């Protein structure tokens, strides 16, 4: 039951009480008047004024209730914090590190790759590439286990230089075949090996007298 219903019921009860109280009061006044007129008195009758109910006798009730309107509290809007955008610190781009000057590639080959003679001079050529000025130390390696002495080439800038060596294979007997390879080993700067350049020697004629 809400407040309006409670106030309405209280007003109805109050009105009923006022009506009942007024009726009882008027009935008592009328009864007193009737008793006075019925009883003879030896003395001259004296006119009695019937008491008039005053406003004080009947309670005045304001039947229209005044509803107090509760003040609605003003809700203060909650301030939404503003987040400052992340600031990317400005910085000078770091240049990519430059690799130390050195050998970056070796292309090794042999000429000729095959021969049908019983003896042959095979020339090995290796192209050495660097990415800058460098002093390159290297040596040749052979499939028969022999090694050439250490050699040096100088690069004043990035580029390519060719180094060569010759292997005199043979003599071999008629019908025999000889195979071999050579490659370059880099000693500095750094270390590395080139590809193997291979040859094939097949003797299909009488063995010639070696030329000194």
Can you put this structure into words, describing what you see?
The protein is α+β, with helices and mostly antiparallel strands. The protein folds into two domains: about 1-40 and about 45-65; about 105-200, Immunoglobulin-like, CATH 2.60.40.3880. About 15% of the residues lie in helices and about 30% in strands. It contains one helix and nine strands, in the order αβββββββββ. It has one helix at about 5-40; strands at about 105-110, 115, 120-130, 135-140, 150-155, 160-170, 175-190, 190-195, 195-200. Strands 2, 4, 5, 7, 8 and 9 form a six-stranded mixed beta sheet that branches. The longest helix is centred in the N-terminal third of the chain and has 36 residues, at about 5-40. It is rod-shaped, with a radius of gyration of 66 Å.
Features:
3-stranded antiparallel sheet, 6-stranded mixed sheet, alpha+beta, single chain, Immunoglobulin-like, 1 helix, 212 residues
